[in-house]
UniProtKB/TrEMBL annotation:
Boundaries of every HTH cro/C1-type domain copy: 7-61
Pfam families the record matches: HTH_26
Top-level taxonomic group: Bacteria
Annotated InterPro entries: Cro/C1-type_HTH (IPR001387), Lambda_DNA-bd_dom_sf (IPR010982)
Annotated protein name in UniProt: Transcriptional regulator
One Gene Ontology molecular-function label: DNA binding
Gene3D superfamilies: lambda repressor-like DNA-binding domains (1.10.260.40)
């Protein structure tokens, strides 16, 4: 399965923030947001910026399930 950013999207829904607002607030590129949307890996620095912005831990925005 790999990485899943479903927790991130749930937080944004709770905050009533769309992906474009989120992208601008955190300073992410459209490519990075697309990678997050496809559950692809992103740089740890990006994840740290997201956690700083949301004031949360990394476990709050992503999960990992080992591939079988």
């Amino acid at each position: 399965m790999g990485f899943s950013y479903n927790r991130l999207w749930k937080i944004l829904i709770d905050k009533e923030m769309n992906k474009t607002e989120f992208q601008k607030a955190v300073g992410l590129s459209p490519t990075t947001v697309a990678k997050l949307g496809k559950n692809e890996t992103v740089n740890m620095e990006v994840l740290a910026r997201i956690c700083d912005f949301l004031e949360c831990g990394i476990e709050d925005i992503l999960s990992y399930t080992p591939k079988e």
